[in-house]
Amino acid sequence: QVQLVESGGGLVQAGGSLRLSCAASVDTFSSYDMGWFRQASGKEREFVASITWSGGSTYYADSVKGRITISRDNAKNTVYLQMDSLKPEDTAVYYCGLNSRGRYAYWGQGTQVTVSS
Questions:
Q1: Is 71 helix (H, G, I), strand (E, B) or coil?
Q2: Considering only CA atoms, which of 93, 74, 86, 92 is closest in space to residue 34?
Q3: Which of 9, 15, 22, 67 lies at 20 to 30 Å from 88 by C-alpha?
Q4: What is the pLDDT of residues 2-38, one digit of tens each?
């Protein structure tokens, strides 16, 4: 059974930073691509960033490029999202997802990020 647990969200002023973590309880974590998504109030869930199983390739939404960095530590079964220069429009619930066979089949419960202006 796959479990994903996000942490690290909170309230931060515009221009500040947060680091989100997602701890995975899954065999062979290092075999899976991972991603971060977010959902703002009243909006659909949207892609933020993803990372391949080895960490060799990363992908970002245009809206976060240059401000957000995804990384992983396969020894710790954890994927991270370093968020810098945060903007009020980054306010959302952030979810990590595990990509199994080309689709994000497993999700965490989410962590709230609120950026005040």
A1: strand
A2: 74
A3: 22
A4: 999 999 999 999 999 999 999 999 989 999 999 999 9
pLDDT attached to residue 82: 98
CA 102 – CA 117 distance, rounded (Å): 37
Edge-to-edge strand ranges of the sheet holding 78-83 = 3-7, 18-25, 78-83, 68-73
What percent of the chain lies above the pLDDT cut of 70?
100
Q: Give Cα 63 distance to the centre of its chain.
A: 14
Q: Could you report the per-residue pLDDT of 53-80, keeping only the tens digit for each?
A: 999 999 999 999 999 999 999 999 999 9
Q: How far is residue 5's CA from residue 107's CA, in Å, rounded to a whole number?
A: 9
Q: What is the pLDDT of residue 104?
A: 96
Do 36 and 17 form a contact (C-beta atoms < 8 A)? no
Q: For strand 111-116 and strand 10-13, is the pairing parallel, antiparallel, or unpaired? A: parallel
Q: How many Å apart are CA 37 and CA 4, to the nearest integer?
A: 13
